[in-house]
Design brief:
The structure is a single chain. Helices cover 42% and strands 15% of the residues. By secondary structure, the protein is an alpha/beta fold. The chain contains twelve helices and ten strands. The chain has a single domain, classed as Rossmann fold, CATH 3.40.50. The N terminus and C terminus are likely disordered. A hairpin with a 7-residue loop joins strand 1 and strand 2. This is Monoterpene epsilon-lactone hydrolase.
């Protein structure tokens, strides 16, 4: 498989491609047997179900808002998904949305800002998912990184537009800064729609003159609302969970105004000058691979330190299966190591700034 824009991809092998001015790609090793089995099972079961729900939201009397409200309810069904033992939680209320602190009892909590914070945005296509669906995954990331995490339950369709979701993300970031947490001690992270939102929030912060976070870590980011490139991509047939069609629903039915999408709503259409170091993790078989590649190209064009980490035959946000998938545990460990290095670098930079000021 090859892609445009200077990113050459062949069968995944354990290698890192680093060329100045070009996308830095790290191919992970071949998928484990468990991951290959999971991919085949989900491709035969969940993928048809997701496609059927897309038809329901497109072509039936439930089109649009009614279908979105049904999708919103999915987070309640995820209530039984508990975080691992030892996880501590603390709710945070904002005007119009909520969030939740997560940290492990053996690590610094939100009352210790010097330790750093992950600001996390959950996935769900901007119409499903929330604190319940992502609590276990977010808590695992926090524990592996050894820091506190603020999981943001931003507003979604049908009550909010993408621009409202971005506003909520920036509000949550300002909340951290107002608590005295320096920008260099914050890492934006998220999966799927939340991965795209992490970039959108950083771009919005930059536009407002707000100090940018230390880094961005994105899992399979949904960052291009235009469905054209995904429709033509071979992964539209290979993805175990999502299709190009399923991702057109929030974009064209939910966000488009008079059938038109503003290109500036998609992070892939922005200049990334000044953006923080970035890690993007994605599967070589998922339909959001083009989004991840486009984000990595924007980083390369702007000279932003980055790594596009490509996992073999993985399921969309396979990290959520870390209880049973060794590949997922390895991916979370890589993400946590990136977060830790970014926060440690931020701590050093902060110490230098304070010394200079003195």
């Amino acid at each position: 498989m090859r892609t445009g824009g200077g990113v050459g991809m062949t069968a995944p092998v354990p290698a890192t491609v680093r060329t100045p001015g070009r996308v830095e790609v790290e191919f992970r090793s071949r998928a484990s047997l468990r991951l290959r089995i999971a991919h085949a099972l989900l491709r035969a079961t969940l993928r048809p179900a997701v496609d059927a729900l897309s038809v329901l939201a497109e072509r039936t009397p439930l089109r649009g808002d009614p279908a979105f409200r049904i999708a919103n309810a999915a987070d309640l069904a995820a209530y039984p998904l508990r975080a691992a033992r030892g996880t501590r939680r603390a709710p945070v209320r904002f005007a119009g949305f909520r969030a939740e602190w997560l940290w492990h009892r053996d690590h610094p909590g939100p009352g210790e800002p010097a330790a750093g914070v992950i600001l996390y945005f959950h996935g769900g296509g901007f119409l499903t998912g929330g604190l319940h669906s992502h609590r276990r995954l977010a808590a695992r990331i926090a524990r592996t990184a050894g820091t506190a995490l603020l999981n943001v339950d931003y507003r979604q369709l049908p009550v909010a537009h993408l621009t409202d979701s971005v506003e909520d993300a920036v509000t949550a970031y300002r909340y951290l800064l107002d608590r005295g947490i320096p920008a260099e001690r914050v890492v934006f992270a998220g999966d799927s729609a939340g991965g795209g939102l992490a970039f959108a929030a950083a771009l919005a912060a930059r536009a407002r003159g707000i100090a940018l976070p230390a880094a961005i870590a994105a899992i399979a980011p949904f960052a291009d609302l235009d469905p054209a490139i995904r429709r033509d991509h071979p992964n539209d047939r290979r993805d175990a969970l999502l299709s190009a069609r399923s991702l057109t629903v929030p974009a064209l039915i939910g966000f488009a105004r008079d059938g038109v999408l503003d290109p500036m709503w998609s992070p892939v259409n922005h200049d990334f000058a000044g953006m923080p170091p970035t890690l993007i993790q994605v599967s070589d078989s998922e339909v959001l691979l083009p989004d991840a590649e486009a984000l990595a190209r924007r980083c390369a064009e702007a000279g932003v330190p980055h790594t596009l980490q490509i996992w073999n035959n993985a399921i969309h946000v396979f990290h959520a299966g870390a209880d049973v998938l060794p590949d997922a545990r390895a991916a979370i460990a890589d993400l946590a190591d990136f977060v830790r290095r970014a926060l440690d670098s931020g701590a050093v930079a902060g110490d230098v700034d304070r010394t200079t000021a003195a």
